[in-house]
Amino acid sequence: MERGLRKQRTRQAISDVATRLFISRGFEEVTIAQVAEAAQVAKMTVTNHFPRKEDLVFDVHESFVASLAEVRGRPLVAAFRRAWRAGLERRDALLGFSGPEFARMIVESPTLLARLRELHEEREKALAASLLDELDSDTARAVAAQIGSVARLLFDEVLRRIADGEPEAEVAAAVGRAGERMFDLLESGLGSI
Locate the HTH tetR-type domain: which residues (predicted)? Predict the structure, then answer.
């Protein structure tokens, strides 16, 4: 247990140091070697914890990818709306809420934006796989694509507004209105699935 805790602390310390470096210098300008030096660990330690440089930024990527597949309840769209509203109320990072410097770092980096698109795709695939117990493959993929698209659009809007320096309360209010309209459209199309 102590070893696992130590490993988690090291991982978090590396991620925190990397984030500070990326924000101050720009993601593309910082190397893994510089992160290792600043974190006072070996380069191999960094890559053992974070196989991709982008993972230093998206250190919660596993939770992000699993987040849609973990939503439970029926009707399906109503369950996603409830989960999304709860995340919006918490200003959840998995919905795009972060500090403005962090958000700007992402939106200003083509590499990070590309990785974020990949993570959205992985999240959609995980959702489709989780629906296979109840739906055929084509329907599961179609439903996951629609729900995943709404989640991506709302995430991108939160991230952009935060990067522009809007206060979280204003972002939540504006995105909340947009989200309700999007979920209404989903419900009209997906109905009682």
Answer: 8-68
